[in-house]
């Protein structure tokens, strides 16, 4: 069988515990891939998506993730040079408030 998405096959298995990995497409499902790596990935997972998508594409997608944790948003903000206030997780008020948000 031909490997359809080598990047997905090389990411940590725990990232897609609830998804049929064989049906994932690295381009079509890149928001899911980036979201999971930012939330639960390892440094090697980060390096894989950074090599595949680049910081500009990761930042563009991260800006639209409303429930992105603040540490991940700050990390992407620092690397991309985009102010963290431009990320949806900072501008959209969540129904359930997080503790210790400054």
Mind explaining what this structure looks like?
- With 102 residues, the chain is mostly helical.
- It has one domain (6-91).
- It contains 5 helices and no strands.
- It is globular, with a radius of gyration of 14 Å.
- The model has no long low-confidence stretch (mean pLDDT 87).
> How many beta-strand segments?
0
Task: Give the helix tally.
Answer: 5
Radius of gyration: 14 Å
Supply the number of structural domains.
Answer: 1
Counting copies of identical and different chains, the oligomeric state is single chain
What proportion of the residues is helical, as a percent range?
A: 40-55%
- Taking the alpha carbons of the first and last residues, their distance comes to 50 Å
Overall 3D form: globular
- Look at the structure and give the mean pLDDT: 87
Order of helices and strands: HHHHH
Structural class: mainly alpha
Low-confidence stretches: none
Can you summarize the main beta sheet?
A: none
Share of β-strand residues: under 5%
Keywords for this entry:
102 residues, mainly alpha, 5 helices
What's the short story on this structure?
This protein has 102 residues and is mostly helical. The protein contains 5 helices and no strands. The protein has one domain (6-91).
Topology:
Blueprint lengths: L5 H5 L19 H11 L2 H22 L5 H11 L7 H4 L11
Helix pairs in contact: 2-3, 3-4
């Amino acid at each position: 069988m031909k490997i359809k998405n080598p990047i997905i096959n090389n990411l940590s298995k725990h990232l897609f515990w609830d998804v049929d990995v064989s049906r994932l497409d690295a381009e079509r499902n890149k928001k899911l891939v980036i979201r999971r790596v930012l939330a639960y990935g390892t440094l090697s997972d980060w390096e894989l998506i950074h090599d595949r998508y680049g910081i500009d594409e990761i930042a563009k997608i991260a800006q639209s993730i409303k429930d992105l944790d603040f540490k991940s948003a700050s990390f992407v903000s620092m690397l991309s040079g985009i102010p963290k206030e431009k990320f949806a997780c900072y501008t959209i008020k969540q129904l359930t408030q997080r503790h210790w948000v400054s």
